């Protein structure tokens, strides 16, 4: 266990290249190509982290200044996902999320109940988060373990379902995102998009980056949009002219640099993705294999970044205007792209739909973050987290995610019975998605082929 923790503590930029290298070798990739793929993936993640760091360093102070400028006063501080991850792994059962995550994944893959091979080990903190909250709520260690297992199963089910949307919109073949923050939002976007498609007039509004650029010319370019949004945030923050202009260039830089860093990371993943496809086709005909990755790959899309930047001031004002909310958004404001990046494929890149959908999603999420704040604070104390002068803390990631509410509310109301029922329901979902549905599809295709053959014979006889 200590070695495993040491291995994880290496961080994603070291851990992921090692895993990609080993994975590529297992799939039959030549050692030289496998080594280069792993290194390029690591470099890509370094680049992504540098750009995200720029985003945090520029928007973090702007968000704080915006809060101070308008005199907002809420008593629960958003401490951000790094603190949430540290708290999650710092509890007595949090570190068990990693071996449980790997074990559950291998077990499901063995029985053909998932197509997702998850190499994003660091992000098992999302399931450690819900497990730790349930443990803080019930003081039942084994119920916390069951929560982690069921949450893992649900994320693998979500990843299997979302793979087709990810490939269709982002163009990432054989890659999916079993990410505890990003994946759940897509399943809220699906019914929202169904409603949007049935609103006369609104359903014909094209607001993806390409359509906006066609209409507005240079003003619709994603870089210019980033600069304009940076100016808007700087004005709301009360910055002086130099400060506004610096923030504008920094947000424009993020819009340009992040997609390029993602492209670099994908350069390293392409050989592995191709090898995975060939490996599965050879040894498991009829099955697909998706590589489970961090959704950081998706946040560089112009539609994601533009929507997320617009949602930053919206989120701050929502926190003040919504009655009953006690959470002051702060540290996770720059991480809003992770909350919405899998809503964007469902909305087909439409920025207007994403901003509206994201506003509703985050608005409800603020109430969830408020609801779990006492448990979050208790878990922080149990993990010896330094809360400074704050007496109540929470987070937008994962505090504002509906799965957090689900996995805490069910044990609170129904204890083991509720979590057991949710586990069985999730297991049936995995069986349906990976066993029943493919069999029905193959049967349908078989009937279609027979019909075409019969039609062909009839034509010859005629």
From TrEMBL:
<dbReference type="InterPro" id="IPR013853">
    <property type="entry name" value="EIIC-GAT"/>
</dbReference>
<feature type="region of interest" description="Disordered">
    <location>
        <begin position="441"/>
        <end position="462"/>
    </location>
</feature>
<feature type="transmembrane region" description="Helical">
    <location>
        <begin position="327"/>
        <end position="347"/>
    </location>
</feature>
<keyword id="KW-1003">Cell membrane</keyword>
<keyword id="KW-0812">Transmembrane</keyword>
<dbReference type="InterPro" id="IPR013014">
    <property type="entry name" value="PTS_EIIC_2"/>
</dbReference>
<keyword id="KW-1133">Transmembrane helix</keyword>
<feature type="transmembrane region" description="Helical">
    <location>
        <begin position="301"/>
        <end position="321"/>
    </location>
</feature>
<feature type="transmembrane region" description="Helical">
    <location>
        <begin position="6"/>
        <end position="27"/>
    </location>
</feature>
<feature type="transmembrane region" description="Helical">
    <location>
        <begin position="83"/>
        <end position="109"/>
    </location>
</feature>
<feature type="transmembrane region" description="Helical">
    <location>
        <begin position="143"/>
        <end position="163"/>
    </location>
</feature>
<keyword id="KW-0762">Sugar transport</keyword>
<feature type="domain" description="PTS EIIC type-2">
    <location>
        <begin position="4"/>
        <end position="440"/>
    </location>
</feature>
<feature type="transmembrane region" description="Helical">
    <location>
        <begin position="39"/>
        <end position="63"/>
    </location>
</feature>
<feature type="transmembrane region" description="Helical">
    <location>
        <begin position="413"/>
        <end position="432"/>
    </location>
</feature>
<feature type="transmembrane region" description="Helical">
    <location>
        <begin position="257"/>
        <end position="280"/>
    </location>
</feature>
<keyword id="KW-0813">Transport</keyword>
<dbReference type="Pfam" id="PF03611">
    <property type="entry name" value="EIIC-GAT"/>
</dbReference>
<protein>
    <submittedName>
        <fullName>PTS transporter subunit IIC</fullName>
    </submittedName>
</protein>
<keyword id="KW-0598">Phosphotransferase system</keyword>
<feature type="transmembrane region" description="Helical">
    <location>
        <begin position="359"/>
        <end position="377"/>
    </location>
</feature>
<keyword id="KW-0472">Membrane</keyword>
<feature type="transmembrane region" description="Helical">
    <location>
        <begin position="216"/>
        <end position="237"/>
    </location>
</feature>
<dbReference type="InterPro" id="IPR004703">
    <property type="entry name" value="PTS_sugar-sp_permease"/>
</dbReference>
């Amino acid at each position: 266990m200590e070695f495993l923790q040491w291995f994880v503590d290496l961080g994603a930029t070291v851990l992921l290249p090692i895993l990609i290298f080993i994975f590529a070798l297992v799939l039959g990739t030549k050692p030289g190509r496998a080594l280069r793929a792993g290194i390029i993936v690591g470099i890509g993640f370094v680049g992504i982290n540098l750009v995200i760091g720029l985003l945090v360093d520029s928007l973090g102070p702007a968000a704080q200044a915006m809060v101070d400028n308008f005199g907002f006063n809420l008593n629960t501080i958003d401490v951000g996902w790094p603190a949430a991850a540290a708290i999650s792994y710092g509890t007595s059962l949090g570190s068990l999320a990693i071996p449980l995550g790997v074990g559950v994944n291998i077990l499901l893959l063995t029985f053909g109940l998932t197509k997702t091979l998850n190499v994003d080990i660091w992000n098992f903190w999302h399931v450690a988060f819900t497990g730790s909250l349930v443990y803080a709520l019930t003081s039942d260690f084994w119920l916390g373990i069951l929560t982690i297992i069921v949450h893992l199963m649900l994320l693998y089910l979500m990843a299997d379902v979302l793979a087709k949307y990810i490939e269709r919109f982002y163009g990432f073949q054989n890659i999916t995102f079993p990410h505890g923050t990003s994946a759940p939002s897509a399943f809220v976007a699906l019914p929202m998009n169904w409603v949007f498609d049935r609103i006369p007039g609104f359903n014909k509004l094209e607001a993806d980056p390409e359509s906006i650029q066609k209409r507005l010319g240079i003003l619709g370019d994603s870089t210019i949009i980033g600069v304009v949004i940076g100016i808007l945030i700087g004005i709301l923050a009360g910055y002086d002219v130099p400060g506004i202009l610096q923030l504008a260039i920094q947000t424009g830089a993020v819009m340009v640099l992040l997609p390029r860093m993602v492209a670099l990371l994908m350069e390293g993943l392409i050989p592995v993705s191709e090898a995975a496809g060939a490996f599965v086709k050879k040894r498991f005909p009829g099955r697909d294999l998706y590589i489970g990755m961090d959704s950081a790959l998706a946040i560089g899309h112009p539609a994601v970044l533009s929507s997320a930047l617009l949602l930053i001031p919206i989120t701050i004002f929502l926190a003040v205007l919504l009655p009953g909310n006690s959470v002051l958004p702060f540290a996770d404001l720059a991480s809003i792209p992770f909350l919405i990046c899998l809503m964007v494929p469902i909305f087909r890149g439409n920025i207007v739909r994403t901003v509206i959908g994201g506003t509703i999603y985050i608005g409800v999420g603020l109430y969830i973050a408020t609801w779990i704040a006492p448990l979050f604070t208790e878990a922080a104390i149990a993990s010896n987290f330094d809360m400074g002068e704050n007496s109540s803390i929470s987070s937008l990631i994962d505090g504002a995610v509906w799965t957090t509410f689900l996995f805490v509310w069910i044990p609170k109301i129904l204890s083991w019975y509720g979590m057991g029922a949710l586990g069985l329901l999730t297991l049936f979902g995995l069986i349906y998605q990976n066993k029943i549905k493919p069999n029905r599809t193959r049967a349908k295709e078989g009937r279609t082929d027979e019909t075409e053959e019969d039609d062909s014979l009839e034509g010859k006889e005629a």
